Amino acid sequence: MSHFLTLVLVPSSTPRAKIFDAVAALLAPFDENVDVDAYPVDCACRNGIAERAGRVAADREVGSLSALRARYRALPFADRPEWTTFSAAYQAVVERVAHAHPLYQQPDPQCDDCQGTGTRLSMYNPDSQWDWWAIGGWDGSLHPDNVLPVRDLLVSWASHAHPTMPFAVVTPDGQWHQHAVNAVSADDWGQTVRMLLQADLDALAVTCDLHI
Fold first, then answer.
1. CB neighbours of 212 closer than 8 A, spacing ≥ 6?
2. pTM score, two decimals?
3. Which of 15, 123, 173, 205 is the most buried (most CB within 10 A)?
4. Domain coordinates in residue numbering, the chain
5. Is the Cβ–Cβ distance between 180 and 167 less than 8 Å?
């Protein structure tokens, strides 16, 4: 669960008294709290039995995962390798045993959710991005003025060497754009945000705090 900064762009003709409603309308499709029509999804039980067998084998051959984590935390921070490297031997046993198991990548025949089919129905919003939001953040302090013309916001950013970039931008056409942290550098994302704003120079940028 975390909070993240989002800019929601609304038409410049939006009256101040209607800003909240305009933002709410643009954010509504991404609400985690809204159920959608039921659709089929893979059940979480898939591969569960095989993976549990792999963990039992790894506990026996390498040592328990809890003990492995304790040894990892006991290392001086500067000497710690990546967790994936440190736990590679454990994971190798899990994968070897799970791959050889007759129910590898198969559902649990006794699963109550999918009755052993491997597919269940979900009403979870597949476009969900937030479960709570507020203009200006929970304490109203994200920005001294939480509604700015896009042109003014870009000018403000130009005067700062390292302006605070939002994690996500919602454009007036209802499209959600967000920083793909593992795939896009901060500099590249900053350029993308500027391009999105320049495409809607006449819009109002509303600073929002979202939570998921």
1. 1, 2, 4, 32, 128, 129, 130, 131
2. 0.73
3. 205
4. 3-35+128-211, 42-122
5. no
